[in-house]
Amino acid sequence: MPKRLLIAASGTGGHIFPAIALAQKLPDYKIGWLGVPNRAEKNLVPPQYYIHEIEAEGFQKPFGLGTLRTSLGLLCSIYKAWQVLIDGPFEGLFTTGGYIAAPAIIAARLLGLPVILHESNAIPGKVTRLLAPFCTAVILGFEDAAKYLPLAKTLTVGTPVRGSFFDKKKLDLPIPEDVPLVVVVGGSQGAVAVNQLVRQCANTLFEAGIWIVHLTGENDPDVGSLQHPQYIQMPFYNEMPALLQRANLAISRAGASALTELAITKTPSILIPYPYAAENHQAYNAAAFVQAGAAVAFLQEELTPEILSSKVLDLLNSPELLKQMTGSAIHLARQDSTERLNIIVRYVMDGKKIPKINN
Ligand SMILES: CC(=O)N[C@H]1[C@@H](OP(=O)(O)OP(=O)(O)OC[C@H]2O[C@@H](n3ccc(=O)[nH]c3=O)[C@H](O)[C@@H]2O)O[C@H](CO)[C@@H](O)[C@@H]1O
């Protein structure tokens, strides 16, 4: 009989893709997915994993009537997650944190099932901090996150990326092979502020012969306002491995999966952390890359189109510097994160003690 694992990963690519990477390593398992109606998992989770839907939302400040409604909603979601686990019947839970993790972890632990939690950010999210002590294993993307989780059993393996990032891919976009290519990516949902900055400096870059692939996200009101033969814009692109492998430079937010993929594809980057990320965690994610010399980072509020275009031109005109950044990225790229996570999940699901893993 195959082992039965429920995966709770919802809302953004950064939560869903690492879970897909793990699921791809468990072909001998029966996997079910726990998601929220109409969130990104609807489009991103491969169809072979059935998505069981529950509601999940966070507590908003100031506390008041809304808190009562959210508390009742949480109780309801715990009950639904509990039912999904029993009906499966699932033998364990894997989650990447976020709002959906709260009802899923509580329900699984009430049923006495093992829980593996993966936290990809340098500063763990609220649900991770609250519930990590109750999980069987807490797996980290960044070693530094452990200091925020003193009561949890943590192991650092990095953040899993989809298997396709490790194969050499050819880019299927009409871009000449010998031109410099800059990719602009604002995380899985796009970043309107970054998009605006890039559009304002695009002409300077085009004049220098640079091509731009701009992944705008679905909610950019100015999509279509810039047209140029050296410019390709899309709301979302599925072939990120080929694109990052081909790019000479990326302008990116600093989500944990994005950073890991940039490291694995050895793509130098200019990072613009999302300033409103919970507890500014993207700035901490970015800092690890800047300290290692793999990226440069700017605060969004200090960045002007002039600063951005001159940084892009400086970097693309300095092959030695780009090479150094690429070299530094190699040291950050943990090639075996998914495999290590896979081993841990199997040990936990088999009820065995997790072996010591060397970092
Ligand atoms: C605003 C915010 O709080 N974002 C968080 C969210 O980010 P978000 O969901 O944006 O996650 P990341 O930036 O880490 O990753 C984006 C993912 O989307 C993929 N992608 C993106 C664009 C595209 O066109 N095609 C595509 O496939 C990338 O390859 C990557 O796998 O979850 C991450 C993991 O907890 C956090 O680190 C981020 O801080």
From TrEMBL:
Its main location: membrane. Pathway: Cell wall biogenesis; peptidoglycan biosynthesis. It is a peripheral membrane protein. One of its GO terms (molecular function) is undecaprenyldiphospho-muramoylpentapeptide beta-N-acetylglucosaminyltransferase activity. Residues 6-138 form the Glycosyltransferase family 28 N-terminal domain. Keywords: Cell cycle, Cell division, Cell membrane, Cell shape, Cell wall biogenesis/degradation, Glycosyltransferase, Membrane, Peptidoglycan synthesis, Transferase. UDP-N-acetyl-alpha-D-glucosamine binds at residues 12-14, 121, 162, 188, 282. CDD domains: GT28_MurG (cd03785). Residues 182-336 form the Glycosyl transferase family 28 C-terminal domain. One of its GO terms (biological process) is peptidoglycan biosynthetic process. It is an enzyme of class 2 (transferase). It is found in: Cell membrane. InterPro entries: GlcNAc_MurG, Glyco_trans_28_C, GlycoTrans_28_N. GO terms for cellular component: plasma membrane. Its EC number is 2.4.1.227. It catalyses: di-trans,octa-cis-undecaprenyl diphospho-N-acetyl-alpha-D-muramoyl-L-alanyl-D-glutamyl-meso-2,6-diaminopimeloyl-D-alanyl-D-alanine + UDP-N-acetyl-alpha-D-glucosamine = di-trans,octa-cis-undecaprenyl diphospho-[N-acetyl-alpha-D-glucosaminyl-(1->4)]-N-acetyl-alpha-D-muramoyl-L-alanyl-D-glutamyl-meso-2,6-diaminopimeloyl-D-alanyl-D-alanine + UDP + H(+). Cell wall formation. Catalyzes the transfer of a GlcNAc subunit on undecaprenyl-pyrophosphoryl-MurNAc-pentapeptide (lipid intermediate I) to form undecaprenyl-pyrophosphoryl-MurNAc-(pentapeptide)GlcNAc (lipid intermediate II). Belongs to the glycosyltransferase 28 family. MurG subfamily. This is UDP-N-acetylglucosamine--N-acetylmuramyl-(pentapeptide) pyrophosphoryl-undecaprenol N-acetylglucosamine transferase. It comes from Limnofasciculus baicalensis BBK-W-15.
